[in-house]
TrEMBL record:
<dbReference type="Pfam" id="PF01337">
    <property type="entry name" value="Barstar"/>
</dbReference>
<dbReference type="InterPro" id="IPR035905">
    <property type="entry name" value="Barstar-like_sf"/>
</dbReference>
<feature type="domain" description="Barstar (barnase inhibitor)">
    <location>
        <begin position="34"/>
        <end position="130"/>
    </location>
</feature>
<dbReference type="InterPro" id="IPR000468">
    <property type="entry name" value="Barstar"/>
</dbReference>
<protein>
    <submittedName>
        <fullName>Barstar (Barnase inhibitor)</fullName>
    </submittedName>
</protein>
<comment type="similarity">
    <text>Belongs to the barstar family.</text>
</comment>
Length: 178
């Protein structure tokens, strides 16, 4: 039988990349590891994120709703509860909004990197996978029910050439079209 996550270091925080949540959950089950999942798509700020993680990871109620308390809950509290086989953690749709900027995202991921280091010292695998959500403006209710379609709704047929030209990184296509 193939060893799941064999190409992934045992203590790492990385982008989810080619993995799916189902694949990671199955890998955790096969390895006998805890599977921790948090969908952060509805979060708008740091407090929302901490609340969602606390709820979805089923952390103890004394979690102080700050990054230090999150670290403590994922390390000392779990460590004191007995021997651990390992962890596969997924943070899906971390917001990329002005209220949760790049610095805040890095602080959150740093906590999980520190948790991975904590478990590495104890020879317990802790793999954390994350994805970012795309910032999008909320759509007003009156636009959703408008009779007139939006301009983007009118785009029905887009040629492959137009799609390739739509990327600012496809300089060759832009130059050939000029």
């Amino acid at each position: 039988m193939e060893q799941p996550l064999r190409n992934v270091r045992p203590n790492i925080v990385q982008s989810i990349r080619a993995f799916t949540v189902k694949d990671l959950q199955a890998a955790a089950e096969t390895l006998g590891h805890h599977f921790l999942y948090a969908n952060l798509a509805t979060a708008l700020n740091k407090q929302d994120i901490l609340e969602l993680i606390s709820t979805q990871f089923q952390l103890p109620p004394h979690n102080g709703k700050n990054l230090d308390a999150l670290y403590d809950c994922l390390t000392d509290t779990v460590y004191k509860s007995g021997p651990q086989t390992g962890f596969v953690c997924v943070l899906e749709h971390i917001p990329t909004s002005p209220k949760f900027d790049k610095e805040a995202r890095e602080q959150l991921l740093d906590v999980f990197r520190d948790v991975a280091d904590f478990w590495a010292e104890r020879k317990v695998p802790f793999r954390c996978f994350y994805s970012f959500s795309v910032a999008r403006a909320p759509r007003p209710a009156d636009l959703e029910q408008a009779d007139e379609p939006l301009l983007t709704d009118k785009l029905v047929d887009v040629s492959p050439q137009a799609l390739r030209m739509s990327s600012p990184f496809n300089a060759g296509y832009w130059l050939s079209a000029a």
